[in-house]
Amino acid sequence: MSARVATAVAHPNIALAKYWGKKDGEGNVPAVPSLSVTLGGLATTTTVSVDAGLAHDHFSLGGHVTSDAERERVRELLDRVRARAGSKDFAAVTSVNDFPTASGLASSASGFAALALAALRAYGVSSSEADAADLARASSASAGRSIFGGYVELVPGEPARPVAPVDQLPLRVLVCVTSEAAKSTSSRSGMNATKARSPYYAAWVQSAEKNFKELRAALLSRDLEAVGALAEQSALAMHASALAAGVVYFSGATLEAYREVQQLRQQGFFAFATMDAGPHVKVLVHERDADVLAKRLDAVPGVLRVIVAAPGAGASIV
Ligand code: 2P0
Predict the structure, then answer these.
(1) pTM of full prediction above 0.85
(2) Is the pLDDT of residue 180 over 90?
(3) Which of 122, 142, 165 is the last residue of a domain?
(4) How far is 254 from 317, CA to CA, in rounded Å?
(5) Which of 6, 71, 170, 211 could form a disulfide with 121 if both were Cys (CB 3.0 to 4.6 A apart)?
(6) Chain segment 57-77, per-residue pLDDT in tens
(7) Are 193 and 21 in contact (CB under 8 A)?
(8) What does residue 156 show for φ and ψ, rounded to 5 degrees?
(9) What percentage of the chain has pLDDT greater than the value 70?
(10) What digits encode the pLDDT tens for the residues 98-131?
(11) How many CA atoms lie within 13 A of 234 on its CB side?
(12) Mutate to test the pocket of ligand 1, among 187, 234, 274 (most ligand atoms within 8 A of CB)
């Protein structure tokens, strides 16, 4: 039987209102609502080839054979798709990122979004974008958001859905890369440790609900300043709760870049920082200042390079 092949491209997303922590029980359901912007420019390209001749699934990432844990997460997603397709055929999956993998640049978001779309197509499952988003979310919650372009919300228990288009705000995201290495603590273990051990986890969950509502309203009313301020608050509150459990994603360069962002604000620029489960700092700036501020941030000790990203499109089959 000939292989059925599909290739999908997906882009990372940066949460403005962060998700951190899961609801009790199975199903990978986030404990808090989140709101992200999908970034153009950075991409994961994933090909799924269904082949009745294979004895098991194969998965390579960036041309390398992957860890058992990574293969297991890919297999779980393929199993869900096979169950819907009524197929027992295995697949070969190849995935390539054009940015650092597993380092807090949301590679699992674009990775599982691309995998979900490509797998549904390759196995011939007819599905809506909401189906694809919920399939991706079950593997990696933030991945549900990368199915869509522009600004996207993920409310616990529901598939991700778009909230506002790419041109809602004159926003650019300056991704300050501070390490090319993979992070030492995965998001999953970091958030589980925070939930188990942080004295501030309950406060985080409470503050995240309020932050999400306010940020969503600010986005819909095109209040760029409020979106920036609320996004930075969300990131700091998430990391404060994680830090109290000994979950530390910051490096020296993270703090240097954050200090520069505070100085840019004192100098009158619109600049707010957000940090994820890795040492990089993503700086929200006005589109007109993007080139000038990228140079300023590139000069910060420990910042290796700065990627200028604009809000971008959702995942698609190519
Ligand atoms: C977010 N992050 O909202 C938050 C902020 C990182 C910091 O979603 O366990 O890789 O696979 O559902 O989606 C990273 O977590 O975690 C993440 P799993 P995921 O973007």
Answers:
(1) yes
(2) no
(3) 165
(4) 35
(5) 6
(6) 999 998 887 788 889 999 999
(7) no
(8) -50, 130
(9) 97
(10) 876 655 566 789 999 999 999 999 999 999 999 9
(11) 31
(12) 187
Domain boundary among 143, 165, 187: 165
181 and 137 in a common domain? no
| DSSP 8-state secondary structure symbol assigned to residue 147 | T
Which atom number of ligand 1 is nearest to the Cα of residue 142? 13
User: Which residue is listed with tokens 């979950």?
Assistant: 247
- Return the residue whose CA atom lies nearest to atom 7 of ligand 1: 276
DSSP state of 3: P
Q: Residue 164 pLDDT > 70, yes or no?
A: yes
CATH number, domain with residue 260? 3.30.70.890
pLDDT of 2 = 42
Helix (H, G, I), strand (E, B) or coil at 286: strand
For the chain, report the end-to-end CA distance as a whole number of angstroms: 23
- Check: CB of residue 146 under 8 Å from CB of residue 12: yes
- What DSSP string runs through 182-215? PPSS-HHHHHHHHHHH-TTHHHHHHHHHHHHHHH
Q: How far is the CA of 290 from the centre of ligand 1 (A)?
A: 26
Question: Ligand 1 site: residues with CB under 6 angstroms?
Answer: 15, 18-20, 28, 34, 108, 140-142, 187-188, 276-277
pLDDT-derived band of residue 4, with 50, 70 and 90 as boundaries? very high
pLDDT tens digits along 198-248: 999 999 999 999 999 999 999 999 999 999 999 999 999 999 999 999 999
Domain housing 39? 5-165
Residues 113 and 77: beta-carbon distance below 8 Å: no
Which of these, 145, 173, 179, 114, lies nearest to 293 by C-alpha position? 173
Spatial contact of 143 and 107, defined as CB atoms under 8 Å apart? no
- Whether residue 156 is found in the same domain as residue 230: no
